[in-house]
Amino acid sequence: MTVNIHHPAPSKHTAKAKNFRTSVERDLADEELRENFRGAMKFLSERRKSAFPDELELQTLREQCRLIKQRCLLKLPYLLEQLEDNLTRNGIQVHWAETTEEANSIIQRIISKREATRVVKGKSMVSEETELNAYLEKFGIECLEADMGEYIVQLAKEEPSHIIVPAIHKNKYQVADLFAKNIPGFEHTTDVDKLINEGRRVLRDKFKHADVGITGVNFAVAETGTLCLVENEGNGQMCTAVPNVHIAMTGIEKVVEWLDDVPPLLSLLTRSATGQAITTYFNMITKPRQPGEKDGPEEVHLVLLDNGRSQAFADEELRQTLQCIRCGACMNHCPVYKRIGGHAYGTVYPGPIGKIISPHMLGLDATKDLPTASSLCGACGEVCPVKIPIPKLLLRLRQESVKVAGPEETVMGGEGANRKTTEALIWQGWSAMHRHPALYRASMWLATRLHKFMPAKIGPWTSVRSAPHIAPKTLHELVAQRKNTRAKP
Amino acid sequence: MSTIHSERSGARGRILEKLKAQVAGADYGKLPAEPSYAYPPMSRDAALARFTECLQANHAEVIEVSAETIPLAIERELVKRNISKLICGQKGKFSGSLESYFSRSDSEGIELVKYDFPLSDNKSRLFDEAPASFTHSRCSIAATGTIVLWPSEDEPRTLSLVPPLHFVLVDTHKMVSDFATLLKSEHWGAELPANVLLISGPSKTADIQQTLAYGAHGPKELVVLLLNNNTDKE
Ligand code: SF4
């Protein structure tokens, strides 16, 4: 079987992901940031817990949803064709993009063809993945983020630090300062109601005048050709009902086979994400404006993006990565994410899901530190609603990153990027030593005799710990000694 | 257009080809059985209680009405809020009774406006001049306190979205226990309208420091008029 390895175009994320270690140092030192994350993670994990009072229900739903997603992935190419057929029959235009650049260019051309310049966008992580805003800006198209959290992040010229709650790294004081700097006539307040009201005022005006609305997709139903959107604010509904054009963009893995697949997935998604039984809005779009209708878009487009997903798909174990429904529970329960926050990862998707999906999008060379940034505590795998074995996949990616890369990549872009000759030699020696008893005893004898020469500083290990002491005698020697003394009456 | 098309078909072919190569040997006849959780059945009263409880927890107001008192209930709520204008469709079951009620000579001076204009040329009429709206609903879901709308020519998508106060009529005889049951009983898989909307409260956000605030982009207030004629009970 041939695998086409994904070689992504360098993006700002590629560069950022490479600086993981320095970003971690920076963000760990930021007390305010750590406080913001600590509070938010506690809140979200408690919310999730209270949403699942019945353990049997939770486990049945998780198993059901895992199997639904695995079935849909096994049929993925055929479901995508069926989805396209049904959407086209419904009057929705379907576009395919292998790379982020292609997706952006498709969207820009749809917008430019309408001579539109004012675009509003609902929350869409895929549009973050393609860096759509910056791309459109080059063509003089203003693309305004309409989700409150995304809007805040856009004003701050930052990126989202969480896939569900984009501005989770900011507190209300920081938001108030940001509004004061950017919104003319804003009366300074740290009252959250008033802050939201201010955002509403600004964004309502934008919705009113927007030519094009862009959104993501939570589930694309092949059976009916329906795009489903999950949200609380109503910004998605605004984007899909008010402007004359609606462009939805999504990764190819979001397709489900039946409408009946939606209720269990939806229930697990909202409960895992924010502890809600359902979100305020669940929006199902099947057709553009029909004759006689007074609102809704005249044109609806769907852009299907690959960007490394088909590479993950090619390996049965790594394919499980694509089961993800983007609930964010894995990051909410991750001890690493909780401490370093979302920006340190440098990738669009932070936290555990980011560590397993980003290597396919950016290459393992740009993301080689990410799979190692885990204590393998297992919390992510335990809360994941579709039972992705995240810790196992992290181990697999670690292996891919240190393996001997052949002349051609066989599993993924950048495989073998973390392989270090000395490290490899040490492990080879270690393995040989454990396979040959004589060699083992000899090395142990030598190590214990030389224990006094153990250096006090051994690289990063001793930056926060003291170096281990080697015992003057091996356990074998001690046991033998003890036997000897006992034997003598 | 032609350039978009050719590029798109190239990407399409390559993506599908890659995926198909990986599942070539898959045996679709032997997929594992998918379990589903058997939720205990809900009595009508329990369903109603659950529905109301969920909506109230989500900050919606629930008012019981009878067919005759719908206009009166709306009027009372509008007067309470100092609002003198209501926008609605004209073909729904209760649109007529709203019209005759609000056009009576001794009314509280509430103006009833029809959503009979295309939105694109009349944005202000909805965004700036419509403080409250009224819609019917198709059915409702007890388990999550959800109201199902099928927007139409008569009651467009934005009618329930743009005005800051939304009144929605829910006929409790059309309440189902959960979403999965609804899809099955109504055979939604066969044909869906252009847009279906499930609403479970007023618009909200917790995007600033996990503090809930209502009226992010959609209605700040949702008033659910529960039409609960107990006639066929017992
Ligand atoms: S990996 Fe699992 S827990 Fe994490 S976002 Fe995806 S579905 Fe949620």
Automatic annotation (TrEMBL), chain B:
Classification via InterPro entries: FTHF_cligase-like_sf, LUD_dom, NagB/RpiA_transferase-like
Ranges in a coiled coil: none
Pfam families to which the protein is assigned, alphabetical: LUD_dom
Domain LUD: 48-227
PANTHER family: LACTATE UTILIZATION PROTEIN C
Protein name: Lactate utilization protein
